[in-house]
Specification:
Elements lengths: L6 H11 L10 E5 L4 H16 L6 E6 L5 H5 L7 E5 L14 E4 L6 H6 L1 H8 L1 H13 L2 E5 L30 H21 L3 E6 L2 E2 L10 H11 L3 E4 L5 E2 L2 E2 H14 L5 E4 L6 E2 H12 L5 E4 L18 H7 L7 H15 L5
Parallel strand pairs: 1-2, 1-4, 2-3, 4-5, 5-6, 6-11, 7-10, 8-13
Antiparallel strand pairs: 9-12
Helix pairs in contact: 1-2, 1-9, 5-6, 5-7, 6-7, 10-12
The structure holds nicotinamide-adenine-dinucleotide.
Length: about 350
């Protein structure tokens, strides 16, 4: 498959999703952002379900305008029953035959890119979400919106880990607002369609997903570190290095995403992430040293101009709602996930950062 992903990871996801296979037997699914990091996982997971689990295959439509899909996203899609259509979701999309699920994952997800493309970031989450909701409503399809943990902004420490009911602390101005605020409006659109038109909507708030397939040109923290490790250059830790995140390995994340898309309670939002450990960027470097069994050189530096200011100081999910309602339980410890990711990036990256 999948030089860009690990077959063992796809097999692990498919095994964990077998109990849900009946929900997509013979159905049609549309995935926006279908050539992005998560979209490529949806592609491979549906293809593997078709090959090894489903009696009647699922048909999959992938929409993407390729704005940030990069080289990995440009690879041709050759799986039977899975079709790529180049389309900008800020334009309406017409589909005449059956449609059962709409998974709206198009977005501009990396801080580096939403600083470069603020209007596109805003429009895909607002106009794009409205267009995809209207499509789902016309087909009576289940709609899943990829929001973000960023909707919580810079949280009050007494609300960390964040529950879905926490309303957040977000600025409507500044370089991050185009992402945070548009994801919040996207969630409001889901709420409106669910409450006034009865559309079956769900919202996913992912917390820092990582794994093979993240591109060096993605400029999120782990690809940045991995690229510099490959190049033998010092790691760059921005700010003070005391800002915390949790990291969710892609197999755990994909299982959670699919559980929401197939079985989420209508109208509900779910945090999907791995709550443990909440780790500072400096401790992340130390954990990578343990995984690689060697010392790393790193510099703690000012944020570069290309990176949006106002970075949230803490980020950690409370996932009890998804655990209770969807039996979502992450299984891959950070060290194990980092080992898989760093092995893969070491074989794949060219060290361009
Ligand atoms: N990966 C994470 O950790 C994470 C965390 C929080 C939220 N999310 C959200 O999940 C979704 C998927 O994330 P990802 O990591 O795959 O991001 P990604 O950047 O790798 O993929 C997003 C894809 O959407 C496409 N896209 C952007 N604007 C579009 C438009 N107007 N029309 C059609 N396609 C468009 C891009 O070309 C890209 O291929 C995004 O909405 C993101 O905001 C992801």
């Amino acid at each position: 498959m999948t030089e860009f992903l690990l077959k063992t990871d796809i097999d692990e996801i498919v095994t964990r999703l077998k109990p849900h296979a009946a929900d997509i037997e013979g159905r049609t699914v549309l995935v926006t952002g279908g050539r992005g990091f998560l979209g490529r996982y949806f592609t491979e997971v549906f293809a593997a379900l078709n090959t090894s689990v489903l009696e009647t295959p699922v048909r999959v439509l992938l929409l993407d305008n390729m704005i940030t899909a990069g080289n990995a996203g440009s690879m041709e899609v050759t799986h039977p029953g899975i079709e790529f259509i180049k389309h900008n979701v800020i334009e309406p999309f017409d589909w005449k035959t059956d449609l059962d699920y709409v998974i709206h994952a198009a977005g501009i997800a990396s801080p580096y890119y939403y600083r470069a493309y603020p209007m596109e970031t805003l429009e895909v989450a607002i106009t794009g979400t409205r267009n995809m909701l209207e499509l789902a409503e016309r087909h009576d399809a289940h709609f899943t919106f990829f929001s973000s943990s960023e909707i919580y902004g810079d949280p009050d420490p007494k609300h960390v880990p964040m529950q879905e009911s926490y309303r957040g602390n977000v600025s409507c101005q500044g370089p991050r607002a185009c992402y945070d605020e548009s994801k919040r409006v996207g969630e409001t659109l889901c709420y409106i369609f669910h409450s006034t038109k009865g559309t079956h909507t769900n919202v996913i708030r992912p917390f820092n997903v990582y794994g093979p397939g993240m591109q060096e040109t993605d400029y999120r923290v782990l690809p940045n570190f991995a690229s510099r490790i490959k190049a033998g250059k010092p790691l760059k830790v921005y700010g003070t290095g005391s800002q915390t995140r949790t990291f969710c390995y892609i197999t755990d994340a994909m299982v959670g995403f699919m559980k929401v898309a197939l079985g989420g309670i209508a109208g509900e939002a779910y945090n999907i992430g791995n709550p443990q450990p909440e780790i500072s960027m400096l401790d992340l470097v130390k954990t990578i040293e343990t995984v690689l069994d060697g010392d790393l050189v790193y510099d703690v530096i000012e944020y570069p101009d290309s990176y949006p200011a106002d970075e949230p100081m803490r980020r950690a999910p409370d996932i009890r709602k998804a655990q209770l309602q969807l039996e979502y339980n992450p299984e891959v410890p950070l060290e194990d996930g980092l080992k898989r990711f760093l092995n893969w990036s070491n074989n794949t990256y060219i060290g361009r950062q």
